[in-house]
What we know:
The structure holds 3 protein chains of 3 kinds.
Chain A lengths: L6 H24 L7 H10 L15 H36 L11 H15 L4 E2 L2 E2 H20 L1 E2 L2 E2 L1 H25 L4 H9 L7 H20 L1 H7 L3 H6 L4 H23 L5 H13 L3 H25 L8 H24 L1
Antiparallel strand pairs in A: 1-2, 3-4
Chain B lengths: L1 H18 L7 H4 L1 H18 L8 E4 L5 E4 L6 E3 L2 H9 L6 E4 L13 E2 L8 H6 L4 E4 L5 H9 L4 E3 L8 H12 L3 H22 L6 E7 L5 E3 L5 H8 L3 E2 L8 E2 L1 H7 L3 E5 L3 H6 L7 H4 L3 E4 L2 H4 L5 H13 L6
Parallel strand pairs in B: 3-4, 3-6, 4-5, 6-7, 8-10, 8-12, 12-13
Antiparallel strand pairs in B: 1-2, 8-9, 9-11
Helix pairs in contact in B: 3-7, 7-8, 8-14
Chain C lengths: L4 E10 L2 E11 L3 E6 L6 H8 L10 E3 L2 E2 L5 H7 E4 L11 H6 L14 H13 L15 H14 L4 E5 L7 H18 L2 E5 L3 H7 L2 E6 L2 E6 L1 H4 L2 H8 L1 E7 L6 E8 L1
Parallel strand pairs in C: 3-8, 3-9, 6-7, 7-8
Antiparallel strand pairs in C: 1-2, 1-4, 4-5, 9-10, 11-12
Amino acid sequence: MFSGLKGKLSGVLIIALIVLLIFISAASLFLGTANIGYVDVFRILLHHIPGLGDQISIDGIPDSAVTIIMKLRLTRVILALLVGAGLSAVGSTMQCLFRNPMAEPGLLGISSGAGLGATIAIFLGLNTTVFGMGATAISAFIGAIITILIVYNISRTGPKISPTVLILAGTAISFMNSAIIQLLMIFRRDRMDYIMLWTMGSFTTSGWNKILILIPFLVAGLSILLLYARQLNVISTGEETAQSLGIEVEKVKRILLAVCSLITAACVSTSGIIGFVGLIIPHVFRLIVGPDQRILLPYSIIGGAAFLVICDTLARVIASPAEIPVGAITAVFGSPFFIALLIRSKRSVM
Amino acid sequence: MKKGLILMLILFALSFVAGCGSTNAPQDINSPEHTGVIKDNNQQKDASKSEETAAYPLEVTDFRGNSVKLAKEPQRVISLSPNITEIIYALGKGDTLVGRTAFCDYPEDAEDAIVVGDFIEWNFETILSLEPDVVFASSLNTEENENKLMELGINTVFLTQIESFESTYEIIDLVGKVLNAQDRADEIINEMKKTVSEVQKAAEGKEKPSVYYVVGYGEYGDYTATGETFISSMIGMAGGNNIAADITGWVYSLEKLIEKDPDIIICPEYAKEAFLQTNGYKELTAVKEGRIYAIDENLIVRQGPRLAEGLRALYEIFHSESISD
Amino acid sequence: MERSVKVEDLSFSYGNREVLKNICASFKPGMVCGLLGPNGSGKTTLLKNIASILKPEKNAVYINCRDITKMTPPEIAKEMALVPQSTNIDFDFTVEDIVMMGRTPHIKGFSNETNEDREIVQWALETARVNHLKGRSIKSISGGELQRVVIARALAQKTRIILLDEPVSQLDIHHQLSIMETITRLSHEQKLTIVTVLHDLNLAAEYCDIIYLLKDGCIVCGGPPKEVLTYDKIENVYDIVCLVYENPVSKKPHIIPVSSK
Lengths: 350, 325, 261
């Protein structure tokens, strides 16, 4: 078994992974129901690069092709990339923070809170739009934040948070949220299918507005997670140990929880509940590069982004023109891969 | 996952009804914009009657109150609802249909058009790549999906469906106007109105049997067309007495069904056998005495040109006699 | 400057249960101090109060004459290292990674370790005799090896005060002696203040310069082994019958338990 790649090797690997991510994203732009030639795709993309645009003409390419590339495929790829990176980074951080291999972005009820928020918006048939975001997304975000605040306050004794209580409270609130979602679905059966589809997650309605809202959350959030990676390493070996090594454990925990919650809430409210990415990608890379968050986190971010772009491309291409919910793809293709990796790592330990 | 599967099954049983647009949000009906739309449509109808063909560029106001501009007569049309597909064919404009939903199965010719989605999922890329001049959407989807259509600059006419039989005329009228088939639309509407008045005349004075319309049953729960639905009002128009007319929200219960013990049960063709086999329903008088009738549910759930036929079929079931043309 | 730990009139309760009552003790540089007492006597609680893992009262624990409650965690961690009773690490860190974590209080802000940090880690690995394990996964080594790795981490912290909670209870006799020898050597040579909870009375008698005997949250007595580890005091604190001889080699007391009372 690998016990952590160090130094040069991990540097080379991460560059390879970034190249792979770019390649996957490009490939995703070429694939789709509509038949648009590779050359045209390139011309359209280059035309939209500021400064370069004037030299590349897109004459002769139908408007619909330009709209498909710029407003559909490109926004989907970018959104999938951002959400994948965010959820995977949150998963990696939470697994360390709680020293719990099952930790993932939905653990503290954030996803179910977003689901309830979205359900209420769909239930009420809300139609307002703020900052280019639909009522469903805004309501989902509010639901997520309220849920995490409730869970946090349940598990808090003074300034201390007990991870066990936090996880239990999160699970309990999740069940309650799901129950309310189901109740609401019964009362608005005509909207039931939309609620269900929302909870399965999708990038169908991606758009530049969603990307612009997500970017500040992710840039700020991921930077903070990266800055705290070394502290988190120490916390992952035990909270008392971390405290005796001079880390203000409760403060770091609060900061990381807040950041994780905000990233998750932003991701889930723009794209619905996409499971699995946050659970599996960090584990996969932990098996490959070891548990050091300073190395693992960048891998998780890039790996999560690449994984979700692949899954979303499959979601749109496999059953074209029908779409498969991306959450189903992540589980169907992710699980066997993950299980294979588990078996292999088990074997090499024994 | 199992729960999800069950829900999907319920949905499947219901998709015809839900999908055919009998279920818009109630606030739409009384909203001031909406009454405005109807008035506006009537005015435009009056205006267009003076001319033989509609003049393009044409500007129409759809059911959402959006103004839709058409530079020329649409040659490439996408329908996002089965009832609209039926209307397009009835108007003689079937050759312009390039895209449809997976549920648009009537007339058979329509199946040549490319599938661009179902009721809840639309493939925007396919829609765009078909380069439609106009897309007809029955406003059933999420606001996000609907907004996305607008955002992509697709010329979309929303035909928000209203829980009344008469709203079908408005839908046919607007589609006719957009596709330059106003005269044919008027003909269809008049034919439908004629059938309706014949049925209503025939039903007048006759004893009203109590009726239950099966939408969902068995372990997935009992669902029926409740009072607020246009299907319920059709049952009334055809001389029946919908036992669920006093409640709303599609949900019913087996206990209530047994208590009310309807004279007649109507169910979709595909569900009749299974319904008869399911425990609990066997005790109903209508089942014991063989008064359970299968009906092609597409005739009564799609707000399209065949709705009048559906009404007649209901009358014939209720009163065991046919109306000759 | 003298680096000492002083405990003045410290009481501590878990909820309503008072675990420490008016504890007074002082621990001086160059001395190995043992905390002894039966289970539940408050040894570990006292150690955790000193380490500030549990929050002590104000003006009860002083490090170099500073009230510990007025110090920030990084300040405390630069003065004092802790070797906990048991360590359970779920993640696959290497031994070197874990020892490097001992440098945490010395690494500023969000920066990374320097060459100096690496040299100190190397020294700690060698001193705790775990250098040969350096590249191994922390999950693949034995309990005794893990204990020595944790001691190495405490050494890497380069503090003048080291607190240990039963550091040798999981080790074989060879490693028990070797760790205790290392600790006493460091204490005497580098004038470190060592406070260690011990269970083995004979080990304490052998290696500690000062011993505090605790019972029911109170210090029964404190002083050099010869004064503290006497027949009557052990019998009183532990409720046992025992014999106390003089170890012919080291001239320290040697306890032979006979029976429980």
